[in-house]
Amino acid sequence: MRPCWAQYLLWLIITLAGISAILSGCGQDGPLYLPDDSGSQEEKDRQ
Q1: Which ranges of 1-47 does DSSP label H, i.e. alpha helix?
Q2: How far, in Å, CA of 44 to CA of 28, rounded?
Q3: What's the longest Cα–Cα distance across the chain?
Q4: pTM of the model
Q5: What is the rounded (10 degree) CA torsion for 12, 15, 21, 22?
Q6: What is the pLDDT of residues 4-39, one digit of tens each?
């Protein structure tokens, strides 16, 4: 049994939607590293 063109189109749409969902979440919450403690020294001076 040969799959029809609609099945290929469905998998293409699912794949593109998944890739775009993954890429849209990149970097949304700020940097992907933990800030070092040296930057917190300025905050301590202000208090």
Answers
A1: 5-24, 40-46
A2: 28
A3: 73
A4: 0.50
A5: -150
A6: 989 999 999 999 999 998 888 776 666 667 667 665
